[in-house]
Write a structure and sequence with these properties.
Length: 367
């Protein structure tokens, strides 16, 4: 399969500061890629390099197999959609959407037809004679999307396009954006710092931190099988349990933890094999703890002993509890329990987890 975009060991320095540090990524044609990470991690810098607005300090960018590293924005098969999507206030929607086509010398009839087609795609064909100020924020955002797609880019670059919308509209636009991307089949590279947004729209999420790529994968893969501690902690709530690999046989690695010895399958080690003596952090999601009713004798279930509930809160689908394991009371774990369980503060419950749900990563000191 041809890569739509190939980013090869791209770095970008601002004076002495390294904003991007040897980033490499292959993006397939038609993929919806989300660059996700905290403020300042380098997402916008990478997007700007793809769009040609910034040059890399080193490395190479290929788009559709052509070297684009030093090609200016206007001569790239990319369009960038910014958060302040700057529609022309004096133009109707048809002319806003057709603007890029007019710049390319397309004849009026063909231009109008294309503009109507893209307005139709975003559900605004009936409003084509309106001006931007007559629209809601979400509608203006859809016009900006139609305008960006009308020039038929190979790759659409989106920099926090939903950032200005309120939460409800934002969630609705995420669904629409994903549906439109699937219909047009254009490669999308979308920047956000919102984990839920990334989960909702991405084919693959690229988790970035301090100028580096920490993890790449489908949303479920990033959540269930993170390949770095940063990625595990950035996507949703998580418990980290200290561990040390002490022995291994053909199937399992035996790990010493404050809650006892656990035999973990090789698949738990998403960042690579563990050697004996290695310090580890075990990643356990709150919803992966099994409550009293589910644990008894189920295959692959690892007992973590008893834990005392120190606080609990009702969350609709579950109760979110803080618990202190009896064998290691200074530890505090976050555990989701069924609402039906009797969970008064001070009550002790047996804790267990499926071996297949644990991820074991090198502890920070070893990274
Ligand atoms: N023109 C510049 N000059 C100096 N430093 C810059 C410049 N542009 C970006 N930086 C720095 O590079 C780092 C990455 O910036 P970037 O805008 O790519 O982050 P980001 O992940 O997009 O953050 P945000 O989510 O806040 O937009 C930041 O520390 C930023 O201060």
């Amino acid at each position: 399969m041809t890569a739509a975009v190939s980013i090869r060991t791209v770095s970008r320095l601002f004076h002495q500061f390294t904003a991007l540090n040897e980033v490499s990524l292959e993006i397939a044609a038609g993929e919806f890629i989300v660059l996700l990470g905290p403020s300042g991690c380098g997402k916008t810098t990478l997007l700007s390099i793809l769009g040609g607005f910034l040059l890399p300090s080193s490395g190479q960018v290929l788009i559709a197999d052509k070297d684009m590293t030093f090609v200016p924005p206007a001569r790239r098969p990319t369009t960038t959609m910014f958060q302040d999507y700057a529609l022309f206030p004096h133009m109707c929607l048809r002319d806003n959407v057709g603007f890029g086509l007019r710049m390319r010398g397309m004849a009026r009839a063909e231009r109008y037809e294309k503009a109507f087609g893209f307005l139709d795609l975003v559900g605004l064909k009936a409003s084509s004679a309106k001006k931007p100020h007559e629209l809601s924020g979400g509608q203006r955002q859809r016009v900006a999307l139609a305008r960006a797609l009308a020039v038929d880019p190979d790759v659409l670059l989106l920099d926090e396009p939903l950032g200005a919308l309120d939460l409800k509209l934002r969630r609705q636009m995420q669904d629409e954006l994903k549906a439109i991307q699937k219909r047009v089949g254009t490669t999308f590279v979308h920047v956000t710092h919102d984990q839920e947004e990334a989960m909702a729209i991405a084919d693959r999420i690229v988790v970035m931190n301090a100028g580096r790529i920490e993890d790449v994968g489908a949303p479920a893969e990033i959540y269930m099988r993170p390949k770095s501690l940063f990625s595990a902690g950035f996507m949703g709530e998580v418990n980290f349990l200290d561990g040390k690999a002490i022995a291994r046989d053909d199937d399992d690695v035996l790990v010493e933890t404050p809650l006892g010895r656990l035999a973990l399958p090789a698949t738990a080690f998403t960042a690579g094999d563990a050697r004996a003596g290695q310090k580890l952090s075990l990643v356990i999601r709150p919803e992966h703890f099994r409550g009293p009713a589910e644990t008894a004798g189920s295959p692959g279930s690892l007992s973590l002993g008893e834990a005392r509930i120190t606080s609990s809160a009702f969350f609709g689908t579950h109760q979110r509890c803080h618990v202190a394991p009896v064998s290691s009371p200074s530890l505090s774990l976050v555990v989701h329990m069924p609402q039906t369980a009797q969970l008064a503060d001070g009550v002790c419950v047996p804790l267990a987890v499926q071996a297949a749900d644990i991820v074991a990563l090198p502890a920070v000191t070893e990274a």
